[in-house]
Amino acid sequence: MFNAQRPNLDDLPTNRQLIRATLVAAISASALLVAVILPSEYGVDPTGAGRALGLTQMGEIKVQLAEETAQNAAADAVAAQAPALAKVEQAAGGSVQPVAAPPKVPLASEADGRTDTTRLTLAPGEGAEVKFKASKGARVVFNWSVEGGHVNYDTHADAPGISYHGYGKGQASTGEQGDLVAAFDGSHGWFWRNRSGAPVTIMLRTEGAYSEIKRVV
């Protein structure tokens, strides 16, 4: 078995030598801190040696970059919180919101809705037109039928400044049904012409939000 030789006591450093070495190491570390680390990392140069070596400028750049990074992070945090703050202000009534225009108040007959039945008799070649008045977006359910023959028809509307707006037309029809949604405030309805060789009777039923209905032709 190999046994290490025990060192001679005379070869070991004395306490005084250890203290001296510790002091030298501490002084060297302090000098390194003051002359190199502080200038190069924090831009602090108590002795002026760091600026002479170009280390202070490096530290100042690092400090400036760190400050800019912190400012950018703070700005990003504020921007991220802005939508949430806006919602809180809106909920609390802290922000001024534009006031929407009050909705148009329909006529009493439009608000309540109405149902009408209109009966027409047309001789061969004769035409007739029935229209109702309604506001834009009003919905009217209709159903008309022809007895004794067939007719050509044109579903359309007009208003001041609008001479004609077509919804649909057809030929040789014996009846139609569906929903008519008013495209604008005005008069909406149907024109029929009897293309049969005998008199016909048209029965029109309407239901919805309109103010009046009458034959105009």
Q: What is the terminal separation in angstroms? A: 132 Å
**Total strand segments:** 9
- Give the total of domains: 2
The 3D shape can be described as rod-shaped
Label the CATH architecture of the largest domain. Sandwich
Q: Assign the CATH topology of the largest domain.
A: Jelly Rolls
Rg is 48 Å
Q: What class do helices, strands and sheet pairing give?
A: alpha+beta
Low-pLDDT parts are 94-99, 101-111
Indicate the proportion of strand residues: 35-45%
> Strand arrangement, largest sheet?
5-4-7-2-9
Q: Sheet with the most strands?
A: 5 strands, antiparallel
SSE arrangement, N to C: HHHHEEEEEEEEE
Provide the CATH top-level class of the largest domain.
Answer: Mainly Beta
The residue-averaged pLDDT reads 79
Instruction: Specify the helix fraction band.
Output: 25-40%
Which key features would you list for this structure?
2 domains, 217 residues, rod-shaped, Jelly Rolls, alpha+beta, 4 helices, four-stranded antiparallel beta sheet, five-stranded antiparallel beta sheet
In brief, what are we looking at here?
This is Transmembrane anchor protein. With about 220 residues, the protein is of the alpha+beta class.
Describe the structure in your own words:
The protein has 217 residues and is of the alpha+beta class. It folds into 2 domains: 13-92, no CATH class; 109-215, Jelly Rolls. 35% of the residues lie in helices and 35% in strands. The protein has 4 helices and 9 strands. It has helices at residues 15-42, 49-52, 55-92, 108-112; strands at 114-122, 127-134, 139-147, 151-159, 162-173, 175-181, 186-194, 200-208, 212-215. Strands 5-4-7-2-9 form a 5-stranded antiparallel beta sheet, with no helix packed on it. Strands 1-8-3-6 form a 4-stranded antiparallel beta sheet. It is rod-shaped and about 145 Å long. The protein starts with 14 loop residues before the first helix and ends with a strand. The model is unreliable at 94-99 and 101-111 (pLDDT under 50). This is Transmembrane anchor protein. The chain crosses the membrane at residues 21-38. Keywords: Membrane, Plasmid, Transmembrane, Transmembrane helix.
